[in-house]
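Lab manual, section 2.4: Encoding a predicted structure.

Procedure: take the sequence of the chain (431 residues), apply the prediction step described in section 2.3, and record the output as structure tokens. A sample record is shown.
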Amino acid sequence: MDNVTHALAGLLLADATTTWVSSRQRSPVSGEVPRRFAGVAAVLGVVAAELPDSDLVYSGSVLGMGKLGYLLHHRGHTHTIVWAVAGALLLWLVARWWLTRGSSEDERRWLSGEGSRSLMLLALLGTLSHILLDWTNSYGVHPFWPLDNRWYYGDAVFIVEPWLWVVAIPAVMFTRRSHWAPVLLAVLLVVILAASWGLNQVVRPVAVLLTVFAALWLLLQRGWSPKVRVTSGITAWVAVTLLFTLASSKAEALVRASASVDGPDTVRDVILNPAPGDPTCWAGMTVTNDGQFHRLTTVLVAPWAWSGRTPASCASNYPVTSRLGGDVLKALPEATTVIPFANTAAVQWRTSWLKPMSELLGLAMEHCEFAAALRFMRAPAWREFGNGTVVLSDVRFGVGGGFAELAIPFSPVRRCSLTDAWIPEWKAPVL
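Recorded output:
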């Protein structure tokens, strides 16, 4: 997920913590939870919710690992339960020290008891929330390392989901005591609504619904108590996530059923992305093989017939620059519209690309970088050029450049651009 979404999750958790503590036990000095507690909790919630992205400090070009190092290490070891627990403990110790500075003896006694336990829980929930949110999209995480090296994908929520911003921002805006925080949150709300109208990635009916809901939600939140605000914000966030998750589950079942009817291939994976703000339209891709060929096939899915959406209407309502209006596989020279799967009322197959599995395995044997990249790439496609260079792309993220495309030069000696110590033991999704 984007970092604004992570921060909003951290603020919701911080407000929930402050509200919960206020209802249970108050400071013996003032009769209320110390004002500093709410401020420290807010900072702790946001920092904890962002902490797993600390892998950006060392992945990629920072330590000279380049694109391949970024692919292998972003959402890597720091996006695991082990790191979440360790990071939460570290943040809790810092927050506890910060909070007790300058406090009276009675306040320190309270902060070392109820306040301390609450901050520990907040730190842990914050770091775990980051992993859970990152799981919801198609990029994936492997949270159970070192016991399990597999990638896990939710395929449910777009990387920047406007509904999550819209339900969260009003819920946390009115509890902020500083002058700049509500202003910043209001600006973020305007930004996401303006993007929904102006970037041509959200269809007009969804943009209208987002705007109307945001206005009504703001009015309701302003009149509610802090407890009702945070409860409604978290409930709405969970409801949005569940809605997209249910739609994703149905879309995957429809795709698998369509690909299995009279189809010669075994479905190895179904990759799904919703339209931003719209759980009724999904762009997807299958990774299949028949024992001899590795095949990628793009597909449009409209999982809910009652919505009035069909795959054709989904394609026509979105621009060609989007996943729904365009077709990423068409950029590959061997792409074809001859597809061994049958269309249905909810599933429309688009373009297919296939290469021999023996070629995939052979290139992995010849090129160390190719083999290492397969530990990340969920939908690999490759092109070989006359000079021996192999361009390898993870088609989830496009073809023809971008962060998930590697140009691997020919080398008569099997050498790696990364040292073996920098290649983690993630299980290759496609093998």
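Check your result against the sample. Residues 61 and 320 are 32 Å apart (CA to CA).
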